[in-house]
Amino acid sequence: MPALQHLTLPNRRFALGAGFAVEAVKYFKYWILAAVAIAFLGPLALSQYRDIDLSTWYYTANIAKWFTSFVAGGFLFTLVPNMIAAGMTRRELSVAMGVFGLLWSAALGALVFAGILAERAYYGAMGWSQGIDAQGTISAIGTWGETAAFAAVYPLMYLAYFAAGAVIGAAAYRWENSGWLLLVPILPVVFSLDNAVYDTEPFGPAWAGVLGRFMEDWGRGVVLTGVVIVAAGLAVATRQILLDIPLRSKKA
After folding, report:
1. Position 4 in a domain
2. Angle, nearest 10°, between helix axes 29-46 and 90-126?
3. Domain presence at residue 252
4. In which band, very low, low, confident or very high, does the pLDDT at 206 lie, cut at 50, 70 and 90?
5. 108: nearest Cα among 54, 149, 69
6. Membrane-spanning residues where (predicted)?
């Protein structure tokens, strides 16, 4: 990342946000490559013992949502004092985190989008069925257009999970002993919306989808609008916590 002193004040927050995203991708590149390899080679190995009718990319992409939350929360909780001590203002850090979240979500979402489409061609060539477990029933994702529409929402979902992780990480730093409790109201909202997008249960604790029963009659457009509103609300909450965050020495 470029040194703080070499950037003008109006621009450095954006450059740093982009730098955070680039460094995070570089740091986790082997994890990402391993996930891609497993997603494509796993079905080939399993096909020796059973018919393949489930999309491995779907489940890999769901795990990546939780991973995204951990990246956002862990980054803020660990590096907030270092960033401020290095000369960043709290306002700059909030903007940089926003840029980081947008770029990370877009990059990971683009990878998943390409992966799901590549998997469709791969499964088609192998004579397999690309499906998901929708409420206990295996349902094929569908045509190329339906597959593209299915995969296109992932950047938005990653952004929502990033915002959720960021606000919990910021709160855990701001209120050392109790900030993590924000997980309790945030998780069911984000997870239930995620559940409602695909009318299925994504990878994670079943209890967290309790609000899904109130969303059963919502159209997909309404659910996605809800995801946008929740992601924006969590981003605003993260910013407000960061603006009010104290700088203190971490205990040994």
Report:
1. no
2. 20
3. no
4. low
5. 69
6. 27-46, 66-86, 93-118, 152-173, 180-198, 218-242
